[in-house]
């Protein structure tokens, strides 16, 4: 059997880009996803892009029997764990769903890993674990703060759970990747972010205004202590983020214990700077209006990514212009996300990976 990397949540936005990066680097991957926030089409697009069959299981990380059958059928030597609910707004309305899916789901996954002697894990954490930072840029040694919503608290709880686990058994090699604000899409325009329902994040909202699916962009707050009064964030290209997972998997072959890495560019842009860059690059005017501050938003957040540079040999290579070009290519080629038609060649034309 071939060594296989299990990717939970691999049909989703960041997971699909990471699956692509791993396959292109010669990994054999198995995607496990219950499709609660994604669709089978992203896997079909991956197959077209890689010209290989991508092993996919429609299932849930909370299903122990399924996990044991996966670990017995495949020679899994590492897990990249994306599967999670991720809407801040929904987490406030449905906290039990978030704790059950994210925290209990991760617990279940880790138990299955222990039962099956798999101890290398990369986890999707978030800059949200820093809470309101004391200063910027944010370095890993600031320590975690107080996340301001249930979603963020699930990420912090999982970080603590995984730290305790790594401390309890020296066989574990765990990487906690703290993403800043992922945007962009693969340069092919074939895979990208396809939020269910009304989006919450800035770039999906902005591109949906540009494509005519939303009439106007709401800019939350114009009185923050920043360059132009709007919030500043560290936007990072999803392909750079995907490569960060590849590097982490490599380094975790030798680094045991718990390892924290920020994945960001180290550069902050305000909401207005993003809107104006998008307008300059695409030539499309974005109608927007200011609204009061959104509850829970912090004024400024950007990374010190130097630890990932030193320890992973990783740094973001794609600048804001590239992020906007690729975001827009994805959205304009796929105005209805994955429901838009894209020519997929017959699967028989693809080579089987196994
Ligand atoms: P996404 O929703 O596109 O991907 C998550 C995937 O997990 C989806 O395909 C969903 O169907 C699947 N999933 C959810 N619960 C599952 C379960 N119980 N069993 C199996 N599959 C399940 O989200 P994304 O933006 O790709 O985020 C990936 C990870 O990165 C998440 O853990 C998220 O919390 C984290 N993260 C995302 C961002 C961001 O802004 N996108 C920032 C920081 C961290
Ligand atoms: C960015 C800026 C908004 C939409 C969130 C989560 C975080 C992480 C990444 C997963 C803010 C402003 C937005 C809009 C706006 N997710 N904005 N109009 O809030 O930095 O981070 O996603 O882990 O946990 O909190 O990202 O894209 O929602 O917002 O003005 O329609 O854009 O107020 O200043 P955020 P975002």
Automatic annotation (TrEMBL):
CDD domains: UDP_G4E_1_SDR_e (cd05247). Its cofactor is NAD(+). GO terms for cellular component: cytosol. Residues 6-326 form the NAD(P)-binding domain. It catalyses: UDP-alpha-D-glucose = UDP-alpha-D-galactose. Its EC number is 5.1.3.2. Keywords: Carbohydrate metabolism, Isomerase, NAD. Pfam families: GDP_Man_Dehyd (PF16363). It comes from the Bacteria. Pathway: Carbohydrate metabolism; galactose metabolism. InterPro entries: NAD(P)-bd_dom, NAD(P)-bd_dom_sf, UDP_G4E. GO terms for molecular function: UDP-glucose 4-epimerase activity. It is an enzyme of class 5 (isomerase). Homodimer. Belongs to the NAD(P)-dependent epimerase/dehydratase family. This is UDP-glucose 4-epimerase. It comes from Pseudomonas frederiksbergensis.
């Amino acid at each position: 059997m071939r060594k296989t990397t299990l990717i939970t949540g691999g049909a989703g936005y960041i997971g699909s880009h990471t699956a692509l990066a791993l396959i292109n680097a010669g990994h054999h991957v198995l995607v496990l996803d219950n499709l609660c926030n994604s669709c089978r089409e992203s896997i079909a697009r991956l197959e077209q892009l890689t010209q290989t069959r991508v092993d996919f299981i429609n299932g849930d990380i909370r299903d122990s029997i399924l996990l044991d059958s996966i670990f017995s059928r495949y020679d899994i030597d590492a897990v990249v764990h994306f599967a999670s609910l991720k809407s801040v707004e929904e987490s406030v309305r449905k906290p039990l769903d978030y704790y059950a899916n994210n925290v209990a789901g991760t617990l279940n996954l880790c138990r299955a890993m222990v039962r099956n002697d798999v101890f290398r894990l990369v986890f999707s954490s978030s800059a949200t674990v820093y809470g309101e930072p004391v200063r910027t840029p944010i370095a890993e040694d600031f320590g975690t703060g107080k996340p301001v919503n249930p979603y963020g608290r699930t990420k912090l709880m999982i970080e603590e759970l995984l730290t305790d686990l790594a401390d309890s058994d020296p066989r574990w090699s765990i990487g906690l990747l703290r993403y800043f604000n992922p945007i962009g899409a693969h340069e092919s325009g074939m895979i990208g972010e396809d939020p269910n329902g009304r989006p919450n994040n800035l770039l999906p909202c902005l591109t949906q205004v540009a494509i005519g699916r939303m009439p106007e962009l709401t800019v939350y707050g114009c009185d923050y202590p920043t360059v132009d009064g709007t919030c500043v964030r560290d936007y990072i290209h999803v392909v750079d983020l995907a490569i960060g997972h590849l590097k982490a998997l490599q380094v975790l072959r030798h680094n045991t214990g718990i390892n924290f890495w920020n994945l960001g560019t180290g550069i902050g842009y305000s909401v207005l700077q993003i809107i104006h860059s998008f307008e300059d690059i695409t030539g499309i005017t974005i109608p927007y209006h200011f609204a009061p501050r959104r509850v829970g938003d912090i004024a400024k957040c950007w990374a010190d990514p130097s630890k990932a540079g030193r320890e992973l040999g990783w740094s973001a290579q794609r600048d804001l212009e590239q992020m906007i070009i690729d975001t827009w290519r994805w959205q304009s080629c796929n105005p209805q996300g994955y429901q838009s038609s894209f020519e997929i060649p017959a699967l028989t034309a693809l080579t089987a990976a196994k």
